[in-house]
Amino acid sequence: MATPPRLVPLLEQFDWACLRLLNRMTGPEVDSGNGMPIAVPPITDEEYLWKPVPGWSVRRRADGPGQGATVLLGAGEWGRDSAPEPPYPPPFTAIAWRLSHISEMLALRADYTVGDRDMTSDTYRNSGDAMGAVRSFSDAAEAWRAALTGADDAALDTVGYSTYPYGSDPGEMFVDIVWWVNQEILHHGAEIALLRDLYRAMRSA
Questions:
Q1: I need a labelling partner for 184 at 20 to 30 A (CA). Which of 50, 106, 165, 172 fits?
Q2: Largest CA-CA distance found in the chain, in angstroms, rounded
Q3: What backbone torsions phi and psi does residue 87 show, to the nearest 5 degrees?
């Protein structure tokens, strides 16, 4: 099936955003934005869980939720801080929290678009280590991309083509959801990159 022309630039943007984020986390280098490669060390477990100030993260279930959180979302040993009504202003979130958030979003949106539509935030497994989290993100991005490449023009215009229950998907045209997911990767990817810069600067000060 040919890719609808209006989906092509959105796919290219998604691929580029995911590649930059993966390179920024794993190295050995990342494009500076003007074609110049910059050396990047792989993210460590300490950095993945690091918080410069108190805030939300991914943490062992046995340790309980962090400050301002009331639940740990997910299945297994590690959960992600959350609350039915998040505090205001929003809490600071560690790289672990941000990466888990976008990985879960991609995995569940793929499931609620072309899968069995039975995944939930309570069944998603968070990673307690950096490389496990990177693999989870990569797998989730591939699943979402596969859902996109199976969409034709009619699907892009269909309201509720994705039935992802934690967003506005059931009431939105699919093409708008595709755009929304891209901006999630772009802005959280930029936040993760900034936190990596801050971690490096504070460790070398």
A1: 50
A2: 55
A3: -65, 155
